């Protein structure tokens, strides 16, 4: 807890300083402590994404960024903006921050933390943006901009990767500054994402903030659009937000087309990043082929696509069974899955129907645009992979629009206190989740509370690993563990080794002496096939055999 607090005390002024610096290029969009901090996040993320093509995001980059941020913070006397908070505000901020850093100090339990978030950050800090990294491990082809931002501060100012906790404190500052009390009701849910560098938390936070600014009639349309595109660049399932900002700018504010230029530049950077790491403009969709030599093998993409479809049905059906579904089966089997996923899916559909009816009754142009944007996103998600984690943001949007007039300060603080207490209990005593929500599988991965959390966040110890070589690629694989969150680079997950060998291919370095030159896939010759099969035999032998 103490180290998260120190990170917050250091990083918030740094972000505010960069927010001030960004005003020399972009007009002021959000004001106050939170506004400058959020602008700083945007500015640093974009700069580091461009920089990571050329250099790793190591301690040199971090030190320079911190010094520049602190210079603008003190030179511009930005610290005076804290005076806008009253004594009661500071008490509330302290109360909320204490809950956030306490919840943020628990062990990570989101599985992507181990298989995607941490490995991505390790690659970015050690090597930067690596061309064709998806050939090594397809998941790494995402390289979310949020992980670029997290990587740059992971060397010493936030080594435990709790930037999401810092962001939640900034979000609390925004809520109190703007007196948008209903958003306090969102914080307890977001506490479940603050132990990991999950991109789900920042996209929800930014999207609700932008939504609030639109509903309040913010006329800084260039900034609204570029921030919306930034959220999309963090996680493309947030496509509804740039659509909404575009429609709002065009039909409500009636802005000129030139206001979209900054947003278009961010989109170009996003597409360039994806083509560089994945081979196609949007991960993991193989659309927009420009013929780069490092794009993934078609069989691997097909396997990934089949897996995404199975995840839609919570892995309760095989791909072959899903292929035989009729249209009615597609809908009914998704709605009536076993476990909590069924309740979430049904609630999602009901919420959409209620929101459509509400929008029709209200006849408010902005609400109608929100409804259209959400429907477009929902249709795209359902067509691609209707996993609840891809549409969780829709619940926040609908709740915000429907109940914004109901939740005053008192009701919001009470709701926040009650729900936060529930989350704290679940995190502290994870066995309650396992008993009362057995279908919530993440509950099985929640670690127990430890007294050391009072000083530093809980983190799992490093894994042991084995080293192998196939062709010109020397690589490492975690021993008896499916992910590589602490394994020496280059590391490959077990599942991708099996998929590659099954497809008759294996990743290779484009330049054996320089890993930054990237990776391609290569068809296995007889010698390489033998080497790859020996790797699989070794992996299987490392697991205890049932007799």
Largest sheet at a glance?
2 strands, antiparallel
- Show unreliable segments: none
Counting helices, strands and paired strands, the structural category is: mainly alpha
Number of DSSP helical runs: 22
Helix content: 55-70%
Termini distance? Answer: 46 Å
Strand order of the largest sheet: 1-2
Summed over residues and divided by their number, the pLDDT gives a mean of 91
Binned strand content: under 5%
Radius of gyration: 23 Å
Written as H for each helix and E for each strand, in order along the chain, the element string is: HHHHHHHHHHHHHHHHHHHHEEHEEH
> Globular, elongated, flat, extended or rod-shaped: what is the shape?
globular
- Number of DSSP-assigned strands: 4
Write the layout of secondary structure elements.
Blueprint: H1 2-22, H2 32-51, H3 59-75, H4 87-104, H5 112-126, H6 145-152, H7 163-178, H8 187-190, H9 200-215, H10 221-234, H11 240-252, H12 261-277, H13 298-312, H14 319-323, H15 327-335, H16 340-362, H17 365-384, H18 388-403, H19 409-428, H20 431-436, E1 465-470, E2 473-478, H21 494-502, E3 505-509, E4 519-523, H22 526-542
Antiparallel strand pairs: 1-2, 3-4
Folded structure, characterized:
The structure is a single chain. 58% of the residues lie in helices and 4% in strands. It has helices at residues 2-22, 32-51, 59-75, 87-104, 112-126, 145-152, 163-178, 187-190, 200-215, 221-234, 240-252, 261-277, 298-312, 319-323, 327-335, 340-362, 365-384, 388-403, 409-428, 431-436, 494-502, 526-542, and strands at residues 465-470, 473-478, 505-509, 519-523. A hairpin with a 2-residue loop joins strand 1 (465-470) and strand 2. The strands form 2 sheets. A two-stranded antiparallel sheet has the order 1-2. A two-stranded antiparallel sheet has the order 3-4. Helix 2 crosses helix 6, helix 7 packs parallel to helix 9 and helix 17 (365-384) runs antiparallel to helix 18. The protein contains 22 helices and 4 strands. The mean pLDDT is 91.
């Amino acid at each position: 807890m103490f180290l998260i607090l120190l990170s917050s005390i250091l990083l918030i002024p740094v972000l505010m300083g960069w927010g001030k610096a960004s005003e020399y290029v972009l007009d002021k969009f959000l004001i106050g402590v939170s506004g400058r901090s959020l602008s700083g996040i945007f500015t640093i993320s974009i700069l580091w994404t461009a920089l990571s093509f050329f250099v790793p995001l190591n301690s040199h980059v971090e030190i320079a960024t911190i010094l520049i941020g602190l210079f603008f913070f003190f030179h511009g006397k930005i610290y005076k903006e804290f005076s806008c908070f009253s004594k009661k505000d500071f008490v509330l901020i302290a109360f909320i921050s204490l809950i956030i850093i306490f919840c943020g100090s628990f062990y990570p339990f989101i599985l992507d933390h181990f298989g995607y978030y941490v490995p991505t950050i390790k690659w970015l800090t050690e090597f930067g943006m690596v061309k064709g990294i998806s050939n090594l491990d397809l998941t790494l082809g995402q390289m979310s901009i949020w992980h670029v931002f997290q990587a740059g501060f992971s060397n010493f100012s936030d080594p435990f990767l709790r930037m999401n906790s810092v962001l939640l404190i900034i979000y609390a500052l925004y809520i109190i500054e703007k007196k948008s009390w209903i958003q306090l009701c969102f914080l307890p849910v977001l506490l479940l994402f603050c132990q990991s560098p999950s991109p789900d938390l920042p996209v929800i936070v930014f999207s609700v903030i932008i939504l609030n600014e639109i509903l309040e009639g913010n006329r800084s349309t260039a900034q609204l659009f570029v921030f919306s595109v930034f959220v999309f660049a963090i996680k493309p399932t947030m496509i509804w937000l740039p659509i909404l900002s575009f429609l709002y700018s065009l039909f409500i504010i009636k802005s000129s087309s030139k206001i979209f230029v900054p947003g278009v530049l961010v989109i170009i950077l996003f597409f360039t990043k994806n083509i560089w790491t994945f081979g196609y403009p949007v991960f993991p969709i193989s659309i927009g082929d420009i013929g780069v030599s490092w794009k993934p093998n078609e069989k691997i993409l097909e396997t990934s696509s089949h897996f995404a479809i199975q995840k839609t049905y919570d892995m309760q059906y095989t791909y072959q069974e899903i292929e035989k579904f009729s249209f009615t089966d597609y809908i009914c089997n998704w709605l009536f899955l076993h476990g909590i996923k069924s309740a979430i899916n049904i609630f999602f559909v009901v919420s959409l129907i209620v929101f459509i009816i509400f929008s029709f009754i209200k006849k408010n142009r902005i609400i109608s645009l929100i409804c259209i944007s959400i429907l477009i996103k929902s249709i795209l998600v359902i067509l691609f992979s209707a996993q609840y984690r891809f549409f969780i943001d829709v619940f926040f949007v609908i709740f915000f629009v429907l109940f914004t007039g109901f939740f005053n300060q008192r009701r919001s603080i009470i709701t926040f206190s009650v729900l936060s207490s529930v989350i704290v209990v679940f995190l502290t005593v994870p066995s309650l989740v396992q008993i009362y929500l057995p279908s919530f599988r993440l509950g099985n991965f929640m670690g127990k509370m430890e007294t050391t959390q009072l000083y530093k966040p809980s983190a799992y110890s490093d894994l042991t690993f084995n080293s192998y070589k196939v062709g010109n690629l020397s690589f490492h694989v975690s021993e008896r563990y499916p992910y590589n969150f602490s394994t020496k680079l280059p590391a490959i997950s077990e599942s991708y080794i099996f998929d590659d060998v099954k497809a008759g291919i294996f990743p290779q370095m484009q330049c054996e002496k320089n890993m930054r030159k990237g990776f391609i896939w290569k068809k296995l010759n007889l010698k390489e096939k033998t080497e790859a099969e020996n790797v699989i035999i070794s992996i299987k032998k490392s697991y205890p055999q049932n007799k």
